[in-house]
Known about the structure:
The chain is an alpha/beta fold. The chain has helices spanning 20-23, 32-41, 58-61, 81-84, 92-100, 102-111, 117-123, 135-140; strands at 4-7, 12-14, 47-51, 54-56, 68-72, 76-78, 115-116, 128-130. The chain has a four-stranded parallel β-sheet.
Amino acid sequence: xxxxxxxxxxxCFTAGNDLRDFQDVETDGDSPGLTxxxxxxxxxxxxxxxxxxxxxxxxxxxxxxxDLAYAGDxxxxxxxxxxxxxxxxxxxxxxxxxxxxxxxxxxxxxxxxPFGAAEAVAAGLINAAVPEGTALEVALx
Length: 141
C-alpha cells in the first residue's frame, strides 16, 4: 500500500456519527469513531481524502488528520458538536485553531454552521476545491 484514499458514496462523504451511539455509552474501550481516528493518525502511509457531498462531524474532523484533502465545489461541511451538546472529537478543538487560526477555528467549532469547499480551503481543512464530481479523480492522480 502506497497511500490510503478515503471517499464516500452516493454523493455523501459522511453523515457523521449516529446520535444513538452517544446514548449507548460503553465504559470500557474506545468508541468506533475514536478507534478510527487513532488508526488514521497512526497510519504509516499518506492518507488522502476525496470529499463530495456532505461531510458532517467526524467527516470534517478526520480531514485534520489527512495528509492531503480535496473536495468538490458542491461539498458541504459542518461541525455540529455544540448544537448537539457534544465535545468535538479527534483533537479538533486543538488542531482546527492551529490550522485555521484561533478566531476562524472557534467560529467553525462553536457556531457549527455549514460551510462550503471554498471556506474549507480558506480554513486549511482541504488543499483545494475541485470541480464537483472530480475529487476522487484528483485524489488518485
